[in-house]
């Protein structure tokens, strides 16, 4: 009996250690690729696309996005809200909130600024630098974001291939009624907002 108990404790300990050091589940994809390629590559489970249908799927666990384009790749933090759309059994759009819960402003800004830094390094450019500039940690941006009637919005694009929209706005979190909480929304697809003319 003692031996069985020892084995049981050893197995539980090994599983705990493996989970503690395992990488976060991820969805690894490129916009427009075959759905099954994305499924086979990703460590987060997600259901198959439906043949001859248009729809969306949600990963079965919290997961980060790893955009695997060799030039324009980037990674997000873990996301709880994460939908991937399909059309003709191909990835047709991505919509997510790269966070587990609504965040304090400092934490939300940290995520957005890190993503923008990744995009700059990888060659993404602002679509509308005058009308929708990059979000920044400045007093003016903080004042705009704290206003419940406004939000931060910016668009980034990779050549004429892909476009990202980022929204950052106040969010009423009933679990933290006395705190200002913020939600980031990120969408990826083909180019839907034209490039701003000089």
Automatic annotation (TrEMBL):
Domain of life: Bacteria
Name by which UniProt lists this protein: Uncharacterized protein
Organism for this UniProt entry: Pseudomonas helleri
